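2024-03-11 09:14:02 DEBUG pipeline.ingest accepted 1 chain
2024-03-11 09:14:02 DEBUG pipeline.ingest length=403
2024-03-11 09:14:03 DEBUG pipeline.predict start
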Amino acid sequence: MRFLHTSDWHLGRSFHRVDLGPAQQDFLDWLVREAVERRVDAVLVPGDVFDRAVPPVDAVRAASRALAAFAAAGVPVVLTSGNHDSATRLGFGAELAEAAGVHVRTDPLDLERPVVLADEHGPVHVFALPYLDPDSCHEALGAPRSHPGVLTAAMDRVRASLARSPARSVVLAHAFVTGAAPSESERDIRVGGVADVPASVFDGVDYVALGHLHGSQGVGGSTAVVRYSGSPLRYSFGEAARTPSVTLVDLDADARVSVELLSTPVPRGVATISGRLEELLADPALEPLADSWLQVTLTDARRPDAALDAVRSRFPHTLVLGFRPEGGEVEASSDLARLRAARDPVEVGRAFLAYVCGEPTPEETDVLRRADELARGRDTEHLRVAPAPAEGTVGDDASVGAA
């Protein structure tokens, strides 16, 4: 059986104020063509379809057109909500969409109800886990308030379902798995100071299609093959070195997994450069970057006049201009830039308190951590999780005809 694994579309996102809508539409059109030409049995999308809970109208239209195109081509889609999505909004009309082969799973109630696909070798059970926010789900799942706690409880239910109905198996999940490499553009999901889960939580299934981290990569430490597809576009300058892609997955009759990365279409390159202004304007080695989106850091001893205009005279797509003089004193604005770049809001608050009134106590740090978690907000409308089925019972399956 063949799958196309893609995630973290972040429809509606911009890149340093550049509208990515046309590029995202180009990607979705390309994805539909690839799915049809490569005769995939299903497209797997583990979360972050949109960039925010209330996406722009154009982003909703782009997603709707893409899903309609998959349905018209007879390509099943299994799609879940990520931490950027509103589970309620994304799940609207899910029952109707399922009749067209678009399986949108956003409710923890569906944890152990697989989408059942079939090929000449028999069934494949696809379990679609939406993003499980520990604050929203831990009580209903009977789990500790942590990412490892709720995901372990969810996977226990998946393994119980497979014990009742053995089959080749795929799991979609939206999580930060220990050992994977993050990028600058992901939202922090830590709860109680912990953001990651061990890969071993996925033991017992064949392939795990992950979303959340934006770099394509495999993660060891599990009996399953565990992979992030990565995002289809670069969403930060920290991702300049990576090649955006989707993952083509083949699952054979014996549940052996093979993968192939398919590079996605991108509107233009992304790069970072630094140096003195005159050197950057004259260096012939930089000519290939003339059409790229750039982050430029000038190292002149004094800030040049009209620096941005000068840089853009050669590199018209410069989006970010910084100044870090070599051997000179760092300006106060540089300290602010470093503060903005910090990934952990709790650490920023702790450093501020330490500067103003002395190192905070552990209790005060816990207050900061809790305030950060509350400030980021939670979608709490999907708290309903069915109790684990009694021993010997079998849940209903959503079935798709044999490919």
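2024-03-11 09:14:41 DEBUG pipeline.report Residues 299 and 326 are 5 Å apart (CA to CA).
2024-03-11 09:14:41 DEBUG pipeline.predict end
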